[in-house]
Amino acid sequence: MKKQRAELKRRKKKEKFEEKLQRKSQPKDGSLENMTVYVDEFGNLSETPPEPQEPKKKLNQTNTRSNPAAQNK
To answer: Which stretch of DSSP H or E encloses residue 10?
Structure first.
């Protein structure tokens, strides 16, 4: 049992070391464009920027009933 555990420990240590070398050998690209994330109107994250929204139409002020004096006429 001791030999098996020692062998397992050596094997895991070797695998970790190989993974470490692989990570170091890969190029790091920490540019701002790769780290940018956009949030849509529902709170979901996406990598593409949202499409520009059309401006909302303004209500005609003469058709609204906000003026009580105008309602009596």
So the answer is: helix 2-25
Spatial CB neighbours of 36, under 8 Å, sequence gap ≥ 6: 47
Q: Which residues contact 40 (CB under 8 A, 6 or more apart)?
A: 46, 50
pTM, entire model: 0.39
Bin 53: left if φ > 0, else alpha if -120 < ψ < 50, else beta.
beta
3-state secondary structure string across 19-68: HHHHHHHCCCCCCHHHHCCEECCCCCEECCCCCCCCCCCCCCHHHCCCCH
Q: Distance between CA atoms of 36 and 10, rounded to whole angstroms? A: 40
Query: pLDDT for 23-40, tens place per residue?
Result: 888 877 777 777 788 888
